[in-house]
Every structure is written in C-alpha cells, then in structure tokens.
Amino acid sequence: xxxxxxxxxxxxxxxxxxxxxxxxxxxxxxxxxxxxxxxxxxxxxxxxxxxxxxxxxxxxxxxxxxxxxxxxxxxxxxxxxxxxxxxxxxxxxxxxxxxxxxxxxxxxxxxxxxxxxxxxxxxxxxxxxxxxxxxxxxxxxxxxxxxxxxxxxxxxxxxxxxxxxxxxxxxxxxxxxxxxxxxxxxxxxxxxxxxxxxxxxxxxxxxxxxxxxxxxxxxxxxxxxxxxxxxxxxxxxxxxxxxxxxxxxxxxxxxxxxxxxxxxxxxxxxxxxxxxxxxxxxxxxxxxxxxxxxxxxxxxxxxxxxxxxxxxxxxxxxxxxxxxxxxxxxxxxxxxxxxxxxxxxxxxxxxxxxxxxxxxxxxxxxxxxxxxxxxxxxxxxxxxxxxxxxxxxxxxxxxxxxxxxxxxxxxx
Length: 412
Fold this sequence. Notes:
Number of helices: 13
Strand order of the largest sheet: 1-4-5-8
Largest sheet: 4 strands, mixed
Shape: globular
Helix content: 40-55%
Order of helices and strands: HHHHHHHEEEEHEEEEHEEHHHH
Number of strands: 10
Strand content: 5-15%
Radius of gyration: 23 Å
Structural class: alpha+beta
C-alpha cells in the first residue's frame, strides 16, 4: 500500500504540470459561463421578457413581421451576432450566439427563427466568401436594419440537397440563374439571398463539383417573391417561395469557388444546426417553466398537482430532456469554437433538441389539461411552434443518418 501511495504521488507530480500547460492551451471541462457570457445571456433574457413575450401572441395571431422587435434587437446587438469585427460585427462565438438564440426562442421561436435567419444566410459568406463579398454584404447588415434569406430548399429538394434544380450558367463575366426555392425564411423582406444552384447540368457530375452558390440582391430583375405561407406555428417568421427568371449575377458574387457550392452548404450545417438546437432549448425550457408554475397553482384532490407523483414525474422528465439537450448543443458549440469538427454533436444537439422541444410542449399541454388545448394559455402555441424543429435545417431522419455514419467511422 505504501509503495502504491509513493507511485501515485510521483505520478501526480509529473501529471499536474502537464495538466497546467494543457489547460492554458485548451478548454477545461467546465459548464460555467464567463462573466461576459453571463451578461450576454442576462441581457438577452431581459430583452425577451420585456419585448418579446408580451407581443408574441399578437404576431402569432396576425402573422405580421416583427419589425418593431427587430429594430430594438438590432440596436442592442442581438442580430448578426457572428459577423466578424473586421466587417462591423461583434464577432460572438457560436456558443455566445446560441445563448442569445435560446433566450429569444424562450419568448417566441417564430421570432427567433426570423432573427436567426440572418445568421443562416450570413454563415456561408462568413465561411467561404471573398473579402470583397464580405465587405459588401456583411458590412451592410451591421450598418442598418436589414434581413437576408438562405435559399437552398426547393419543392423537390429538401433533405436531398443534391437534387437541386435551380440552375446557373456562366455568360461572359456573369452568371444567369433560373429556378425557384420554397420555404425560405425572411423571403418577403430580404435585402439579399444566399442561393444554391446547379451549375453543371451533367447528372453524372459529382456533387462536390456540380453546384455553385451566389449572393443575389433581392431587387435584381427577375427575382419574384411569392405569398406568405400560413404555417401551423412560428407565424412571426416570414416563409415564402421565390423564383429566379434569367437573374443576372456578377461572377464576383460567387460564394466560394465555382462548382464548390455543395461543400459550402454542407460546411454551414456544422455552424447552423447548433443554433437551431439552441432555439429548441428555449422552447423546451419555456414549456417546462409554464408547466411547473401551473402545477403549483392548479389544485386537485386538495393539493397542488405537482404533489401528485404522475405530474411530478412528467416535470422531472421535461427537466431531464432540457438539460441533456443543452449538453449536446453546448458540446457542439465548444468543438466548433475551438476549431474541431463538430458534425456528430451538431446533429445530436439538433436531433435531441427538437425531441425535447416537442415532447416538453406536448407534456406541458398535458399538465395544463383542457386549458392547455386553449389559445388563451401559452402552451398551445408552444406545441404548434415545436414541430418544425423536427423538419427544418435537416429532418430528424437526416440527423440520424449523419449520427449513424459518424459513429461507425470509429469502427471502420
């Protein structure tokens, strides 16, 4: 025993200096936010409590675009959060951006989806755009209140991005785009679009060479925006189709390399899926909070319903889902911010965040009973808003394909 203690003590003396060096070079395993991150979280939470929660029912009812909220969010620096400082932004990390979106999503995921739509459109430009393209299009987003749109999904190409039919052909120093996109967030109010096109008509051309991405000004001749879609939930988010009829775009508006659009789109998912996961966290936590508060107020059989084991177990499961989903989303953010490939955790966070949001919303309605099925109570909206998290930015089934593929690479 004494020998083992001496060996252990000697080993610790060797390891501790190594740990100190490693800790200086990389992140400790810690779930504590920095003071700056806490301030970002608290200011976003305060904004949500004062500006979003009181107004969310109005936007859900009318489907109006929340410009008044966006003006205040823009002034507070809660929009375009990941644009680098070089281009006028505040350059938040992905984790910090997700802290903002969770809080906004707590108030209304329709508003957070519309607000986050800017970052979705900006991400490919940040990741692959030229310096000039960034200056022109990211710079304008920080100078005045504008929104942008990410145009990839089509009527016949959602999960199967490689089936995109919107096409582009080069004519001299320009490109001509024809086709249409569908279910595009911010479409009716966008200043510009990120547009994913097929640039090689040969069906045998590999995906990593067949597609080219562009920034397209919304006021370009030939761009036609469709009607606002009236969706089940998230009605504050403006969702429409858009068509491109011989739209001429300069070659300088190519994002990345000609033919390299597929790589750009796929790379963006590692950044954008955690943000969707963060918004779903907001909804999952809101459902938990609403159900918990109601379970104290509502009494049956002479006591608050949270004191009934059946209800208490539901609340426990809701809390567990939220906490586990947050771990996955934060892990995906940490890996991304430290330059590690985060595809595996980005999909896990997106998948489980969507599940937590949907199941928590459903359970919240159950806790509310008949009141939960009524529009006068907040959980009815949460249940409608939650479903889209299992569909957009890659369906649950696509996330499972990715997770399974990434998992098996460890063994092959």
